[in-house]
Amino acid sequence: MKWTDLKHLDSLIRETEALGAEVEEIGISSEGRSLYGVTVGDRDAAHTVVIVAGCHADEIIGPLTAVSMLQSLVQQPWPDVKFGIVPVADPDFLHRNASELPTNVTLRDLLQLKHCRDLEGHFTTDTYPECIAIRQWMRGFNQVDAYFSLHSAGLIAPGLFFYVGRGANSRCVHQAASGVTAALPDHIPLLSHDPTGLSQTVLSPGFFELALPNVQALNQQNPGSSLAFVSHHFQPQFVGASEMPLAICPALQQAALSEIEQCNREFRQTGHSKHPLREISLDTQLSIMRTLITSVAHCITTA
Question: Cα–Cα distances in Å, from 225 out to 109, 124, 139, 164, 232?
């Protein structure tokens, strides 16, 4: 895939329908765009994996990963696993970002994407019609064994990390960590601590535990994430969120979040960084994200 495939995601999603995916319009965005839920695999499969991408529309690796997964799954379905995928949770803001990408995309272009609203942080509320539609679509599954919300990290980051909801099956966490570690190029480290400070619990290098609130206590004034929603309604074996950076800056490994954010601001404004950094290719990002998902999927089918 290419970064500019972001401009054609609707047609790429529809193409998978001809190959056997069940593509359903599960809602309409605020501006009238289709919101798709796609099911791949036997509807009576013993296990279900659900993926939602694009809750933050400027974190475009998520939708590209989701569509890449769809393209792979229709060619080689997983036995005993049904995948439910929302490739684009915020089609309106993603459309705005895609329209601003040039033909030849650079790291600075990706850092300049600015259209974003927090569907993840308000997932359990009725603030956005897209969240209402996705929640209703999810409730159509009898069970969810594993759930992934696909995100980017701080774009330029000291390393790679993922969040895992508290209570996840330790075997799934271990298999995910082993799979991702094996897939990583040498220049991409798994972080030993969460640079955002959101999590203080390290399950494995690069895998940090998140406490999730009881969704019954959440409301418009106290919103919650898709991870909290899925955890409450389905008690899956694994709930996780990716935090995929676009570039690695080793000098930031011991830096405070404010310094990491300053590095991103400087590069966005000038195209330069005072610290050496190494961009992660799109192919590498997609490979790591797919490895995370397939490692957990393999674990739940071999339990």
Answer: 28, 6, 15, 13, 11
Other C-beta atoms closer than 10 Å to the C-beta of 254 total: 9
Spatial separation of the C-alpha atoms in residues 11 and 7, rounded to whole Å: 9
Residue 33's identity, in one-letter code, is R
Find out whether 233 and 227 touch, Cβ atoms under 8 Å: no
Q: How many other CB atoms are there within 10 angstroms of residue 286's CB atom? A: 19
Q: Which residues pair with 48 in a beta bridge?
A: 82
* 115-143 residue pLDDT tens: 999 999 999 999 999 999 999 999 999 99
Q: Does 14 have pLDDT greater than 80?
A: yes
3-state DSSP assignment of residue 22: strand
**Which residue range(s) make up the domain with 283?**
3-301
Taking alpha carbons only, the member of 85, 63, 64 closest to residue 74 is: 85
Q: Which two tokens stand for residue 137?
A: 């679509």
CATH code of the domain containing 12? 3.40.630.10
Give backbone dihedrals phi and psi of 160, rounded to 5 degrees, phi first.
-110, 140
Residue ranges of E strands in the chain: 22-28, 34-40, 47-53, 81-86, 146-150, 156-157, 161-165, 201-204, 207-210, 238-243, 247-248, 278-279
Nearest to 9 by CA among 53, 40, 51: 53
pLDDT digit string, tens, across residues 22-52: 999 999 998 999 999 999 998 889 999 999 9
Contacts of 303 (CB under 8 A, 6+ apart): 169, 171, 237
Question: Any idea which of 32-41, 153-162, 174-183 has the lowest mean pLDDT?
Answer: 153-162
Residue 271 confidence (pLDDT) = 85
Q: What is the number of structural domains in the chain?
A: 1
69-97 burial, b if ≥16 CB within 10 A, otherwise e?
Answer: bbbbbbeebbeebbbbbbbbbbbbbbbbb
Q: Are 208 and 162 in contact (CB under 8 A)?
A: yes
